[in-house]
Amino acid sequence: MRASLIQIEVDEGESVEARRRRAAALVRAQAGADLVVLPELWTTGAFAYEEFGREAEPLEGPTCEAMAEAASDAGVWLHAGSIPERDPDGPLYNTSLVFSPSGELAAAYRKIHRFGFDKGEAVLMGAGRDLVTVRLPEAVLGLGTCYDLRFPELFRGLVDAGAELLVLPAGWPERRRAHWTLLARARAVENQAFMLACGTAGMHAGVPQAGHSVVVDPWGEVLAEAGPGEEVLTVDLDPAKAAATREQFPALKDRVLGLEPPRHRGGTRGPA
């Protein structure tokens, strides 16, 4: 299985429509791949909060149309990163879109964990509620987005739903790049799954982006890693390695679920 991660640069001087056309051309250039991945909020920039409302669009909006055509032209499964989605009956959402090689919208995932600590995305967008997987001919994808990477229980849920490849588009800042690589490898190892983490390059509203998109195998080995700039990272991987790893080292079978919360036993508890 060949996967291509498009680490697109978000240039504040480039219009959303121009970047949409450029992203579509980059997708078409990956004809021959099985899976192509774009990063989070590449139309606006993940930290361009003031652009979310202005550029929000419905699922069947211009980005969906452009990416559906690009997926069909290239004949690839396309994880088109995420867009600010405008729900006519609700809030904005940070929503990922996945298209089949025929251009059909196969899945949409609304980001569950919103970043910002009571500001930014955390107050401007609603929280998704549903785990989402997508069955490809070669493997089952499990979907997460950026800040989700810090919450291992989400990925455990995806694995329980059959995921073998974890796909994570992101707009991860350079100042926390060490966490990006560490957590991507951790999620791969603990879930015995491939991790395909696709970030952005450039600046998002003055916030330098980490780049360094990475593909990690179920043993935690980094199969490929991008640099800091715009780049297409392409890697050939064997999806069957997830099942083989789980058979060779069946740690997932030893999970203990439903543990009771701790209780204090004996003695007295001193002042905090």
UniProtKB/TrEMBL annotation:
Keyword terms of this UniProt record: Hydrolase
Top-rank taxon: Bacteria
Stretches assigned to the CN hydrolase domain: 1-239
InterPro entries given in the database record: C-N_Hydrolase, C-N_Hydrolase_sf, UPF0012_CS
Cited SUPFAM superfamilies: Carbon-nitrogen hydrolase
Record-level Gene Ontology MF annotations: hydrolase activity
Keyword Cell inner membrane recorded: no
A Pfam family matched in the record: CN_hydrolase
Family label: Belongs to the carbon-nitrogen hydrolase superfamily. NIT1/NIT2 family.
Protein's UniProt name: Carbon-nitrogen family hydrolase
